[in-house]
Amino acid sequence: MSYDLVVIGTGPGGYVCAIRAAQLGLRTAVAEKRATHGGTCLNVGCIPSKALLHASEAFEEANKHFADLGIDVGTPKLDLKKMMAFKDEGVAGNTKGVEFLLKKNKVETFHGTGRIAGAGRVEVVSEDGGNQMLETKSIVIATGSDVTRLPGVTIDEKVVVSSTGALELDRVPKKLLVIGAGVIGLELGSVWRRLGAEVTVVEYLDRVLPGMDGEVGKQFQRILTKQGIAFKLSTKVTGVEVGKKGGASVTVEPAAGGGAAETLQADVVLVAIGRVPYTESLGLDTVGVQRDDKGRILTDAHYATNVTGIYAIGDVIAGPMLAHKAEDEGVAIAEMLAGQSGHVNYGVIPNVVYTFPEVASVGKTEEELKKDGIAYNAGKFPFTANGRAKANGTTDGFVKVLADAQTDRVLGVHIVGADAGNLIAEVAVAMEFGASSEDIARTCHAHPTLTEAVKEAALAVNKRAIHV
Ligand code: FAD
Ligand code: NAI
Fold first, then answer.
1. What does the pLDDT read at residue 92?
2. Rounded distance, CA 293 to CA 307, Å?
3. For strand 131-141 and strand 121-125, is the pairing parallel, antiparallel, or unpaired?
4. Start-to-end C-alpha separation, the chain
């Protein structure tokens, strides 16, 4: 069997790469070791977490806010089994969708673990031990990432869980302890808090969502605290002991050392301290593909590894571990292999946390601009002053636009607020076109919409917001 391209892994990076390559006329095959396509994102990541965030948000609305809207539904009852079935349906719909798209584009699919047997050769070993050798001009590695483990802590996916276990708990834990105040910790912490768990988040650093704009992090933590999530920042976990009758004792102490240790009890402990590139069983050492000190496959600007004909994209290489980043790299490498000029603009990759309210950002944070010595003007607009937010009763949060002090070019936008994940899209397009804050400010935005807060924040850059 001979191909132009064999892609290993059919997550958002791999399957999108394969489809684009096939569209461009390359004879393409994929190898996937899971039973279903779609990778971490569709099976145990983006899609199931968003389904549970959606369902738990509806539960909380019915529980706490419907009465304010004049809707009396009594006290809603949770049917967790049904909620999980709703989530599973969403996953199945999406993974089947990818299977259909691969078939429609005439991408040949092989189920099994792909191993690079040498330049131009991929061996696929299926679960029943059968194997096939695929000959190919090019290989794209899109094997994604795996959970980062905490040394000395065993993840049993029952009491001590990773995100995967936290997406399929069979009861609401009375106490959930989350290790890591990153995206997973705060999204899944929100899900289980809404469903009735007492949630405590232990974070090593002195802030939540490291990497995001500092002001956004502070405001977001205040909002989550108001919702009932407890935070222990600047704290490290030194041990997790699972009890004989279930539950766990978690020992923590100040991250800086020196302070007293404390033991916290929890029914479930979620370890959410990041993800690591996944390259197991790929045979990289045999063919000599180089990795960096974090285990990420080293590539040049064209996704080429040090071995001719072998490329890598997505979570397994450097950059933000996001599905849309992996997808865009998939398109770019497919286009390059077909002789076109694929390109990803790493300066404009939106980042969204799908809690309520949502957090969304694109471009540089204030901290990054200060560090780089770039002079900027900031325009900020609170949702308390936005007509639609007031009418909806969703006034938490703000939009902040950061623009170059000399050229007015938009350098970064940071939003905490309802629907922030959708609001960030117009700014990403604007930034892609090199917009100034005045360009956004002079664009007519429909009334009454939350998007007017983006326009007002852009106006505020030059101190001419109307509604504050
Ligand atoms: P993956 O999606 O990890 O896919 C890799 C695939 O390769 C897997 O299917 C794996 O089985 C397969 N594979 C590995 N090794 C082999 C082999 N040797 N042979 C054959 N197949 C192999 N990102 C967002 O942008 N938005 C979100 O809302 C979001 N939510 C998330 C929620 C959670 C709980 C988690 C864990 C992640 C979330 N992410 C989100 C991150 C997102 O899932 C990843 O960035 C994305 O899946 C990376 O895509 P990928 O194609 O590089 O790898
Ligand atoms: P993360 O990198 O977002 O956050 C991990 C947090 O754990 C950090 O705040 C870090 O300081 C903290 N931490 C690390 N070691 C610790 C320790 N020993 N004790 C206490 N805290 C510790 O990683 P997370 O949340 O696991 O997510 C992994 C990746 O998945 C993210 O990088 C993100 O790109 C992706 N993801 C994206 C989502 C989205 O786009 N909405 C949703 C979920 C995941």
1. 98
2. 18
3. antiparallel
4. 66
Do 184 and 226 reside in the same domain of the chain? yes
Q: Could you tell me if the CB of 166 is within 6 A of ligand 1?
A: no
- Tell me the ligand closest to 234's alpha carbon: 2
List active site positions.
Answer: 447
Quote the CA–CA distance of 435 and 427 in Å, as a whole number.
Answer: 9
147 lines ligand 1 (CB under 6 A): no
- Identify the CATH number of the domain in which residue 439 sits: 3.30.390.30
Assess whether pLDDT exceeds 90 at residue 258: no
Question: Which of 315, 337, 359 is the last residue in one of the domains?
Answer: 337
Please check whether residue 229 is in contact with residue 201, taking contact to mean a CB–CB distance below 8 angstroms.
Answer: yes
CB 317 within 8 A of CB 181: no
Residue 183 Cα, ligand 2 centroid: separation in angstroms?
5
Show the tokens assigned to 139. Answer: 């290989």
Question: Mind listing the pLDDT tens digit for each residue in 364-388?
Answer: 999 999 999 999 999 999 999 999 9
Q: What is the spatial distance between Cα 199 and Cα 191, in angstroms, rounded to a whole number?
A: 10
- Contacting residues for 100 by C-beta, under 8 A, at least 6 apart: none
pLDDT at 119: 84
Is any ligand 2 atom within 6 A of the Cβ of residue 182? yes
Q: Which ligand is nearest to the CA of 277?
A: 1
Mutate to test the pocket of ligand 1, among 37, 143, 178 (most ligand atoms within 8 A of CB): 143
What is the number of alpha carbons within 13 Å of residue 320 lying toward its C-beta? 22
- Co-location of 137 and 10 in the same domain: yes
- Indicate if ligand 1 lies below 6 Å from the C-beta of 324: yes
CATH number of the CATH domain containing 51? 3.50.50.60
